[in-house]
Amino acid sequence: VELLAGLRRAVAMGEFVLEYQPVVDLVTERISSVEALLRWDAPGAARVSPADFVPVAEESGLIVPIGAWVLGQACVDATDWYSRFGISVAVNVATAQLRDPEFVTTVLGALRFSGLPPQALVLEITESTMIAATAAETEIVVARLQQLRSRGIRIAIDDFGTGYSSLSYLRRLPVDILKIDRAFSMEGPEGADSEDTALTKAILQLSHSLGLSTVAEGVETAERADVLRELRCDRAQGFLYSKPVDVRALDALLEAPH
Ligand code: G
Ligand code: G
Ligand code: MN
Ligand code: NA
């Protein structure tokens, strides 16, 4: 209840900020896109993790206005990165946002206001979006995603491999990119084990046979990046390359010679 009151104030007072985590092309090792990650800096308090407040925001419906702010801000920030470096931006979208009848208008409005071209925007949804949805709800969400996709916006499935029935969702959802959950790259003290690698390999084969582009999340070591490159994973994201950083630090990363 306290958290919820805090979130209401945060929306009213503009206490949210975005950080961006680079996603690197495994062949060229250059940044090809960034993921926007929401941060809440309440005055006089420690930063609250989205892992703690996003579920509360979802349950209360506050994720709809918060998510609209994220979309608007991420598109504004990305306009410069896209025009200078061709970098696209990925935004996490919660289930409640996809169920909002205004969602398509919100996304297209964020693009129009910022001037960001649709091909520079990726929407990240999770498999859980489809869980507990009725057939009719699923149909509406799929139609919305198709509408956005027909404009050139790309859709990514986030945290792939952690939900249920992953494969059946791939058939139903209009998708362009598959993000392999960090659980597959981070198991154990010595990094991913052979079972993780076998599963990663299977997911990559599946993705590529469906024509999907792939991103491995949670890549922390050069050894893991080598394995992923050998398995023909397209891109990687993780502490090996960069943690999520603020706008100024990302500018510096993009401008650094490589
Ligand atoms: O950045 P961090 O690892 O703390 O993020 C924790 C979780 O919060 C992740 O699952 C991430 O997808 C989610 N998250 C981060 N930013 C956003 C956002 O803008 N919207 C939504 N819905 N989830 C977010
Ligand atoms: O669920 P989602 O993929 O949106 O979550 C992204 C979050 O994962 C980021 O907020 C970031 O803090 C976290 N993250 C990103 N890279 C790494 C990594 O290499 N290792 C770990 N442990 N967490 C990571
Ligand atoms: Mn994500
Ligand atoms: Na993820």
Number of self-contained structural domains: 1
Instruction: Tell me the structural class.
Output: alpha/beta
The N- and C-terminal alpha carbons lie at a distance of 48 Å
Overall pLDDT level: 92
Name of the CATH first level? Alpha Beta
Protein name: Diguanylate cyclase/phosphodiesterase
Domain EAL: 1-258
Organism: Cryptosporangium minutisporangium
Short structural description:
It comes from Cryptosporangium minutisporangium. The chain is of the alpha/beta class and 258 residues long.
Essential attributes:
258 residues; alpha/beta; TIM Barrel; eight-stranded mixed β-barrel; globular; binds guanosine-5'-monophosphate; binds manganese (II) ion; binds sodium ion
Q: Helices, strands, pairings?
A:
Blueprint (H helix, E strand, L loop, with lengths): L1 H12 L2 E10 L5 E10 L9 H11 L2 H23 L2 E5 L2 H4 L4 H12 L6 E6 L8 H16 L3 E7 L5 H7 L4 E4 L2 H4 L7 H16 L3 E4 L5 H9 L4 E2 L10 H9 L3
Parallel strand pairs: 2-3, 3-4, 4-5, 5-6, 6-7, 7-8
Antiparallel strand pairs: 1-2, 1-8
Helix pairs in contact: 3-5, 5-6
One guanosine-5'-monophosphate binds next to strand 5.
Task: Tell me about this structure.
- The chain is of the alpha/beta class and 258 residues long.
- The mean pLDDT is 92.
- Strand 4, helix 6 (135-150) and strand 5 (154-160) form a beta-alpha-beta unit.
- The protein has eleven helices and eight strands.
- It has helices at residues 2-13, 50-60, 63-85, 95-98, 103-114, 135-150, 166-172, 183-186, 194-209, 222-230, 247-255; strands spanning 16-25, 31-40, 88-92, 121-126, 154-160, 177-180, 213-216, 235-236.
- The chain has a single domain, classed as EAL domain (TIM Barrel).
- The termini are far apart.
- The longest helix is centred in the first third of the chain and has 23 residues, at 63-85.
- Bound molecules: guanosine-5'-monophosphate (2 copies), manganese (II) ion and sodium ion.
